[in-house]
Design brief:
This protein is mainly α. It has eleven helices and no strands.
Length: 185
């Protein structure tokens, strides 16, 4: 009898993968983030067939290698893994390596932790920081982190272009990081 993994957090599924090595754990995580992975591939590769092939190859890679990675938060990790994979396909020499994620995106992890926190103090801190964003940034970042929507889904829901959504989220992340630093002092 197999366990219904959809009830577990990403971190729990990763832990189960480390303990059991079962491919259904990889499959569950992949299904959760399929739209994100495909969206990133399409954004970088600019061709639906190439993006589809990249998604399949990423799944195959993860099927055999995911248990070997040390991952703290899956969503940003899979985003960076996918981006790096696409950049490698494009043959760009100037792509970042997955291991760089740990050093460069500590702030990104902090933002994710704040959005996923149930702690009243953390929730209040996030609420104060969100007040400092423009309405477009606040809408976009809430859809991205709280609702886990893709750029295209946010654009559809909020009525922005995908280019604007990306810009709002990037600006909001930077403004949140600055606000967190200011409010932490």
């Amino acid at each position: 009898m197999s366990i219904n993994l959809s009830k577990f957090s990403d971190e729990d599924v990763l832990r189960m993968l480390k303990e059991s090595g079962k491919t259904n754990c990889v499959r569950e995580l992949f299904i959760r983030y399929l739209r994100l992975i495909y969206g990133v591939c399409l954004n970088y590769l600019k061709d639906a067939d190439d993006a589809e092939n990249a998604v399949k190859q990423i799944f195959n890679n993860l099927l055999f290698k995911l248990k070997d990675y040390e991952i703290t938060t899956f969503r940003p990790w899979i985003y960076h893994y996918t981006k790096n994979y696409c950049l490698q396909i494009q043959g760009k020499e100037n792509y970042s390596v997955i291991s760089d994620y740990e050093e460069h995106d500590v702030e990104f992890d902090r933002i994710i932790d704040l959005f996923e926190s149930n702690d009243a103090e953390q929730t209040a801190l996030l609420a104060n920081c969100l007040k400092e964003l423009t309405p477009q940034q606040r809408v976009s970042i809430n859809y991205f982190f709280k609702d886990k929507l893709s750029f295209a889904e946010i654009a559809d829901k909020a009525g922005y272009t995908i280019k604007h959504v990306k810009s709002y989220i990037q600006s909001a992340k930077q403004n949140l990081i600055n606000s967190l630093e200011k409010n932490s002092k």
